[in-house]
Amino acid sequence: MKLLIWFLLIPLIVPPSHGQAQNVITITLHSAETRQTIEGFGASGAWWAQVIGGWSDENRQRIIGLLFNPTTGIGLTIYRYNIGGGEHELVDPWRMTETFETDVGVYDWTRDANAMWVLHAAHDAGVSDVVVFANSAPGRMTISGRAAGNPGGTSNLLPDMHNDFAQYLVDITRHLIEGEGIPVRWISPINEPQWDWQPSKGQEGTHYTTDEIVSVLLALQNTIDQSGLDVEISAIDAGEWGSAAIYARRIYDEPVLAAALDHFAVHSYWSSPDDKAQFADFMARHYPGVSLWMSEWTEMQQGRDYGMDSALFMANVIHDDLTIGGVTSWQYWIAVSKYNFRDGLIYTREYGEQIELTKRLWVLGNYSRYIQPGSVRLDVTSDNELVRTSAYHDPGSGSVTFVVINNSADRQSIMLAGLDSGVRTLDIYETSEANDLTRIYSGTPQADYGLAPSSVTTFVFQVLQGG
Amino acid sequence: MRLRMISLFVISLFLFSVIGVAAQEPVTLRMSVWGSLSDQEAYQARLDLAAQQFPNITVELLYTPDDYDQRIQTMMAGGDAPDIVQMAEAIHGFSSRGQLLALDDLISGASLDMEARFGTNHLQYQYEGSQYALPDRGGAMIVYYNTDMFDAAGVDYPTAEWTWEDFLAAAQALTLRDGDAVTQYGFAAGGWWPWWMSFIYQNGGAVLDETGAPAFNTPEVAEALQLYNDLVYTYGVAPSPEDYANLGTNSPDPLFAQGKVAIIMTGFWNIASLRDVPDLNWDIAPVWGNVERGTVAFGSGLAITSSSAHPEEAFQIINFLTDEAAQTVIVERGQDAPANVAVLSGELFLSGETFANRDIYMETFAESADAIIALPLIPQWNEMQSVMSATLDEYFLNAIDTQTAIDQIQADLEDLLQ
Lengths: 467, 418
Fold this sequence. Notes:
The structure holds two protein chains of two kinds.
Chain A: H1 2-13, E1 24-37, E2 40-44, H2 49-52, H3 57-68, E3 78-82, E4 101-103, E5 106-107, H4 113-125, E6 129-133, H5 162-179, E7 184-188, H6 210-227, E8 232-233, E9 235-238, H7 244-252, H8 255-260, E10 263-267, H9 273-286, E11 291-296, H10 308-323, E12 329-334, E13 336-337, E14 346-347, E15 356-357, H11 359-368, E16 376-382, E17 387-393, E18 400-406, E19 412-417, E20 424-431, E21 438-443, E22 449-451, E23 455-463
Parallel strand pairs in A: 1-19, 2-3, 2-12, 3-6, 6-7, 7-8, 9-10, 10-11, 11-12, 13-14
Antiparallel strand pairs in A: 1-16, 4-5, 14-15, 16-17, 17-18, 18-23, 19-22, 20-21, 20-23
Helix pairs in contact in A: 3-4, 5-6, 6-7, 10-11
Chain B: H1 2-23, E1 27-33, H2 37-53, E2 57-63, H3 68-77, E3 84-87, H4 91-95, H5 104-109, H6 114-118, E4 126-127, E5 130-131, E6 134-138, E7 142-146, H7 147-153, H8 164-174, E8 176-178, E9 181-188, H9 193-202, H10 219-233, H11 241-247, H12 252-257, E10 261-266, H13 270-275, E11 282-285, E12 300-304, H14 311-321, H15 324-332, E13 337-338, H16 341-344, H17 347-351, H18 363-368, H19 381-396, H20 402-417
Parallel strand pairs in B: 1-2, 1-3, 9-10
Antiparallel strand pairs in B: 3-12, 4-5, 6-12, 6-13, 7-10, 7-11, 8-9
């Protein structure tokens, strides 16, 4: 009987892997090799905020808590608010938007109330940085008269409306900052300009040529300068890494834009690790002062997945973007989804207020909750390609955080080498089939640790106060 | 003695029944493929035929539309490899690591005559003397041209005898402008390796020499790449990467379908894509040459992963899928050129009736056979592609000159292959 009790107690009193018989994988931290400074993790409010914001207070607050609460949720610090173009002729009501504009330069700030509720709630929950982004100008500024693109898939912003569009974005941004108290830091006027956006695609969007992009960005920068607002342009939300150099070259060879745009935003759709390495290298050689953002991604695959399969796939994309692409910010696409697709961190249904959590939510939390803005990525090497690790030093707290992906279907044992000898405590948080960003260990550092099969685990080493 | 005979008979009967039952035990295999949704449907149709032949074997189709090699590598590393995998140029990155099963014993056990079924196509899937895949799909890169544009410009249709001089003259005559804006391109290609690599081999150049050493900084390669970039930046007959982006695409195929370009080079699959495009008149021809003719053979094979728990059943499936009945489905669906020689030379394929709604020059494929270049399918194929495209993508933006590009690639290849 005593023996039985002893065995039952073992999982509670030792680190999760102690005594593994298999080979121990060595992960070595190179703390002198510092990389990019992390600006934060985020998600977009597109397509869900204008619905969820109208839910019952209990349920909408629960969504906000899951996404933005740094203790009980995943602690996202960046929120992307969609400045809608007022497109109302789409099949899917989620993809329709409201525009504040009622006439040229005239706005009704009571519009888009549900999405505005989410924006305020996200800010109240801890979001420190807001990006406002537009997929299209309102219909009055476009060739087709709609915000859902040109039927031919070609450019849709009227040539004489570049300044109007810039003024429209700045007017709304001013209201959000000065009228609503929202910390808007960036305006993103262009989204995936290379694609042939047209109404049949069922969402707002606009194709731009490179000349038009430069023109719109110059108009917006000029309008921002005149406005006195403390905001910057975030551009260009390129649809993929592989063709991003085409746009970066045109933008950063324009002196005004090169001086104003301190980062280039790219999406990780349809992009291989090679694409990321190649573009990161291109930027480092030609425009070394420009950081990279990954500002939109979700797995493009039909069918819902709640489990670790899609969560691990996402973890590897995040890992590649951070370690190969060197991005300073990683922002997910729609945080809440009603679709039969591998998108959304949280699923709901067309009708009702169902809240269905995915492992993707918690895996993003393995990064976002524990890698604080201002943290510096450190080099890490591993002697096993199945176990992929990135590491971060938070200069504010002194903590060192490892995020470790176990891509194998087997349990693995790891040893974390290269940490300095300061007295530390360690907390381990695991997302796996069994756990949802659950703290599975708290105590002193150990010789080795266990990784659950197909899991993502965050190790937070803290210097003890006075230690 | 009699008792012993009876005993042996009973034992034999028992063993036979056990083995017989074991052979009929249900087995589930997983097979991974890439491609479009119509490709997926064609594979499923062929697997449905296989299920009739082997009712005890269930094959689950894993459709992996993007990042195929990387995803397969991850699955293999994670101990979750499919039993059967579609493989192309990257195959020897897998076979050299022992991740694919050498099929030689299974081939001889099945008395499969590789030469008779596949011609020489199977040789590309051999590594260090062993066969690692059965060829499944094939067909050379060919020319597609807009006959209306040729007729309007008074240019003769392309033939296998065309040289670079003929090609450039045609591309210039077929390019139309409205002021500075190009309204019709004579030619369109881009950064995809079969395009620029075929120009290199047409000029007598190579990526690797006959010893396997990098051979990229040669006059032949330089001249080929210079012409390739000049088509865009000097002659203005082909779109630049920026032009593609501004046109809302990253590929010549949609531009051809939209009637914006006169000549493109691509694979068999484009026949099905163009079949139902209204008011587009087109035909096909072999790719041209310069010092010599040169085009790329597209295709893929079916391999068995070395971790498969059911290699015999997996081989039964890939053997069936590459035999005539299942290969005929490829033709019936207009999916691709089949690898099976009997089907490839059969009346159904040569008639073109199942995949083209017009008379097209189907002899193009036979005339392309002797122009196919021997690709350097080394285990580092994917890494080699990465090294080359890293510099060539910048070269095709006209951001670096030809000599800088070929010197950089030569150095990178030497580092890679040292």
